[in-house]
Amino acid sequence: MPTPSITISSEFSGSVVARGAADDLSAMLLKHAGFQQIQDWHGRRHRLPTTMPVADQVAIASHAADMLRAARYGVDLAPSLGKARMSPPGEPP
């Protein structure tokens, strides 16, 4: 059985979106992490508000990726959303 895959990335608009697996478990984990679920003609999508501070976006996206990986989803997290981005210089990520 192939591993479901989810991509968490930043859009040009500033939104952080999660795309990929659309099952109930991934939706629940993304919602628990802080993503908002949107249901429209595109289907079920998850995103963070564009007004959210970047540090919060990074924290939520990283937390969501950790939870999804623990549930055995393949996660592609954009480098701009990784915890290492927020580490002070000289400290290991």
Question: Could you please describe the fold and organization of this structure?
Answer:
With 93 residues, this protein is of the alpha+beta class. The chain contains two helices and five strands. It has a five-stranded mixed sheet with strand order 3-4-2-1-5. 23% of the residues are buried.
Relevant terms:
single chain; 93 residues; alpha+beta; five-stranded mixed sheet; 2 helices; 5 strands; 29% helix; 28% strand
Q: Helix and strand layout, with pairings?
A:
Layout: E1 5-10, E2 16-20, H1 24-33, E3 36-40, E4 43-48, H2 54-70, E5 74-77
Parallel strand pairs: 1-5
Antiparallel strand pairs: 1-2, 2-4, 3-4
Helix pairs in contact: 1-2
* Spatial arrangement of strands, main beta sheet: 3-4-2-1-5
What is the multimeric organization of the chains shown? single chain
Helix run count: 2
Report on the biggest sheet.
5 strands, mixed
What is the strand tally?
5
Residues in β-strands, percent: 25-35%
Q: How would you state the average pLDDT, rounded?
A: 84
Distance between the first and last residues' Cα? 33 Å
Q: What Rg, in angstroms, do the CA atoms define?
A: 13 Å
Given helix and strand content, the structural type is: alpha+beta
Shape: globular
**How much helicity do the residues have?**
25-40%
Low-confidence stretches: 85-90
Q: What letter string, H or E per element, gives the SSE order?
A: EEHEEHE
